[in-house]
Specification:
Elements lengths: L1 H37 L12 H11 L16 H15 L15 H8 L8 H29 L12 E3 L5 E3 L6
Antiparallel strand pairs: 1-2
Helix pairs in contact: 3-5
Amino acid sequence: MARAKGGASGSKAKSSAAQPQSKAKTKTKAMTTSAKAKRPTLKDPSGGLTAAGRKAYKASAGLNLKPGVKKALEDMTPDEMRRKGSFLRRHYATPRGPLVDDDGKPTRLALQAHAWGEPVPKTPEAARKLAEKGEALLERYKKSKDQTASATKPKVKAATGSKVKTKTKSGTSAPSKPKGS
């Protein structure tokens, strides 16, 4: 019986030592949840990253992410067309995961479209349409790039004929012979 008393007193010591640890754990949990509440949200619940998320990514990876282009097609610059077209084609031509989860809710892959001002695809057909829209944007970008390049290039005349007039020592011009003749 003495053993049971000793065991009971020993268990009290253990249980009293265990109580502060469990309280410490709950305090730590409470502190982490409150710290999480104060920390800015990095992922936008409607898709994409928030400004804080882009800033955090820049700090960790050193890359400068830009927000998605939500402008109407008429208001887009050629660079914005290229960015949006590239994004849509890259993410939705061959999706790298499901578009909806088991509950039927859209996944982060599908929600990315919303961050770029597009409807959230829920079926592979909808994703394919977004990829086709991306292709069209890239084609439009290439056409606008070609138009601006041809408008800004100076026109250069190509030299024609094999005979070129050069001045001689006497000052008169005479046709020169091609080398090797």
